[in-house]
Structure prediction request, 176 residues.
Amino acid sequence: MTCASHISRRSFMHLFSLALFFMSNHNSDTEQQAAKILNTYAKGKEKAYELSDDDQFLSESDIEDIEQTVPEELEIRLERMAKQNIRLVSSEMTAYMKSHDFKVKGSTGTEYTVTIGPKLHCTCRDHNVRGTHCKHILFILLRELKVTDLKSPVYETLTPSDKVLKDIFSRYHPTK
Prediction:
């Protein structure tokens, strides 16, 4: 990684896969554990959790595929998202299976509105200046909407297709 960090790309991907595993458990205790593991390791403190081969939830080839396909800019923002305390404040579907607004509180306490719809948007400065996926959009995609496949088209564009949005929202708002 080119950012000022004590974490290697492979270690980050390993920790990222651990966090995804913990988050899929839908247990707030395990989410807190995952956040603590990522924060502790990423900040270069003593390891709170010793990684072993048994903890590998993604295979080596999966990690290598992700390393080769995830743009470095996206990876840096994923790392920032994992390190910082971002919280969901509220959510509201604005168009059935097509658009959803989320209010998040950033690590500085500022509240931002993230829109996942025909055009991904966030009210933060990073998104408005760079016009890319910011850490708040990534937070919503990964933590709230559970889009864990980093090869998904929603990570490659700010204008996902209706089919992609319907797929994401159908998992978020399951119908019986």
In short: The chain has two domains: 9-83, 87-172. DSSP finds seven helices and four strands in the chain. The radius of gyration is 16 Å.
